[in-house]
Write a structure and sequence with these properties.
- The chain has one domain (about 5-70).
- It is mostly helical.
- The chain has 3 helices and no strands.
- Helix 2 packs across helix 3 (about 40-70).
Length: about 80
């Protein structure tokens, strides 16, 4: 993921994935990430927690820094 186009593609992928979410019927976003997004339970939980805790402003800057420094897989190894 080294271009704006790839980032937009991922955003659209998650929009599509979550569009069918019926969280009021017990299907959580975390479960959707695990079952349909191929994430582990821990990674799915951490992704959602990051999104909720930091939001796009902070994470956008973290993404830019990690790309500038060439960090693809961080210390947690997801």
């Amino acid at each position: 993921m080294h271009s704006q186009e790839n980032i937009q593609a991922i955003v659209e992928e998650y929009r599509s994935l979550f569009a069918g979410a019926k969280t009021d019927e017990g299907e959580s976003l975390e479960n959707m990430l695990v079952c349909k997004g191929d994430w582990s339970q821990k990674a799915a939980s951490d992704l959602l927690q990051l999104a909720h805790n930091y939001g796009s402003f902070m994470l956008r800057n973290a993404l830019a820094i990690s790309m500038a420094l060439g960090i693809e897989d961080g210390d947690f190894g997801f």
